[in-house]
Amino acid sequence: MTDLERFFERLVRNLAAIDQQKVKQPIAVLDIKSKILPYRTNRRALALEGTEDYEELLVRLVSMEGGLVTTVPQDVADWCARQMASLTPDLSGIPGQAAATITVNPEAVARIFGSRADSLAQPTGTTGIGPEACPHCQAKLPTNRAVNFCVSCGRSVTLIPCDSCGADLDPGWRYCANCGAEVSEAGAAPA
């Protein structure tokens, strides 16, 4: 899975956790940054080094790279595509992002999620995407919103990418099931 696909997967998971219908509706680009997939609460799960990496992934997504989404208006997508083709892309902010929207491509959801795509169509309140209980302390987690960290112990409850091969790791794993690499701080909350 590429870093852009991981970003897209996380976006779709967060949308579905809020409301499954949102996956099928236009999403304001500004809402992605501020409400749906904010850098601060998703950086570890996305294995991002800094805000510039996040901004680059957002620009790539809005540019319609990989056919993951459709962007409206087209001139915003074109601007993003030009930035990504540039040797020195401007990642300071997408012009027109306040009015720009993206719509998730259903074929991309099927491609990225595979057989797990069916879980996105479940009725509200039964997302089947996030855990109902913390895998570390077994505390009950909220089901009416996206949850990245346990409300009781503060540890990550989301999948974590392996530093070596990029495979999805469950919180608490000490070794990658795909390549066997030791996992650093698997799901641990920062001290």
Which blocks of ≥5 consecutive residues have pLDDT under 50? 121-129, 186-191
Residues in helices, as a percent range = 25-40%
- Alpha carbon gyration radius: 17 Å
Beta-strand content estimate: 5-15%
Major beta sheet, specifics? 3 strands, antiparallel
Distance between the ends: 29 Å
* Discrete helix count: 6
Number of domains: 2
Q: What is the oligomer described by this structure? A: single chain
List how many beta strands DSSP finds.
Answer: 5
Strand order of the largest sheet: 1-3-2
Output the helix-strand order: HEHHHEHEHEE
Structural class: mainly alpha
Mean pLDDT: 82
Categorize the overall geometry: globular
Question: Describe it for me?
Answer:
- The protein has 191 residues and is mainly α.
- It folds into two domains: 3-121, no CATH class; 130-191, no CATH class.
- It contains six helices and five strands; from the N terminus they run αβαααβαβαββ.
- It has helices at residues 3-18, 29-36, 39-42, 51-62, 74-85, 106-113, and strands at 27-28, 69-72, 101-104, 160-161, 168-169.
- A hairpin with a 6-residue loop joins strand 4 (160-161) and strand 5 (168-169).
- Helix 1 (3-18) crosses helix 4 (51-62) and helix 4 (51-62) crosses helix 5.
- The protein is globular, with a radius of gyration of 17 Å.
- It starts with a helix and ends in a 22-residue tail after the last strand.
- Mean pLDDT is 82; it is low at 121-129 and 186-191.
Task: Provide a concise account of the structure shown.
With 191 residues, the protein is mainly α.
